[in-house]
């Protein structure tokens, strides 16, 4: 349960970073970022694998570049379900998931170095 909460928190913080860095991505409030983080996780868990398999031939032909479109589509789809989270424009569609990936990776590494989210060995 703690792992889920920390993953949701880091994704929400990453979404706030995307909101600051990428024009076209807007997040109204921190609670909206938390709901958006859950939405992004659900879309990436259920919809993205199906889209990835269906788009495999075109991804192969474009040497993997079409995966950016699949990521953008999933990012946009997550924003459709969350009020207060919007993705507008091609730049936000393509670069939003890339920046989100970098931000969450950095935050996960930061929390891991601080020992947040890991239980002591004797518990």
Automatic annotation (TrEMBL):
Is the keyword Zinc assigned to this protein? no
Organism equals Leptolyngbya boryana NIES-2135
Q: What name appears for this protein in its UniProt entry?
A: Phage holin family protein
Instruction: Cite a single Pfam family from the UniProt record.
Output: Phage_holin_4_2
Q: Where are the transmembrane segments?
A: 24-46, 58-79, 85-107
The entry's keywords: Membrane, Transmembrane, Transmembrane helix
